[in-house]
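User: Please predict the structure of the protein below. I'd like the answer in structure-token form so I can feed it into my own downstream comparison script.

Assistant: Understood. Taking the following sequence of 193 residues as input:
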Amino acid sequence: MNFRIGFKYATWWSLIGAALLLFPVASQAKLQKEQVMTALIYKFARFVTWPENSFSAQDAPLVIAVIGEGALQKELSSLRGKQLEGRTIVVQQLSFTQALDPNLPYHILYIPPLPSMRFSNLMEAVAKRPVLSISDMQDFSGKGGVLHLQDTLHTVSFSINLDSADQAGLVISSKLFPLATTIIKNGQIREAP
């Protein structure tokens, strides 16, 4: 096995393993997709730097906004009250209309699959705000989202759109790059080896 590939998978499994420690499981039952994605969203947030002015105070909470009422949205509420980089996590459930409001502060937005017109309107509304947009919607990062979680048969992988992150004023740590299946930068798509 190539050292680079072996290191990549070791690092990826370390990230997943560390994330899963957040969510104790009473039995050895298989973790649900939503639990894995929630743990990954929490861990990914550690690798993002928001602009200073995106928080109202030094100890202001990190707000995770979720649109709709699905299984993942419910699981994300388990992050409520956890600490991340000295900030308490607050989880807010929003309607589509509330998510469009430029005066409603949030730092992470989980977007469920939406009809294309609604999706376009939402992406336009959050594009230049310091928001880490996340979805498992098909080709999310290719359509302007920052972080696309891809659920495959046996694993969850992710893509990063650095152009969208830059536009939002977010800095994504390069530590995530070797783990991503796809990175979009300067309009160019780089697939993982």
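That's the full token string. The helical segments are 3-20, 33-45, 71-76, 96-100, 116-126, 162-168.
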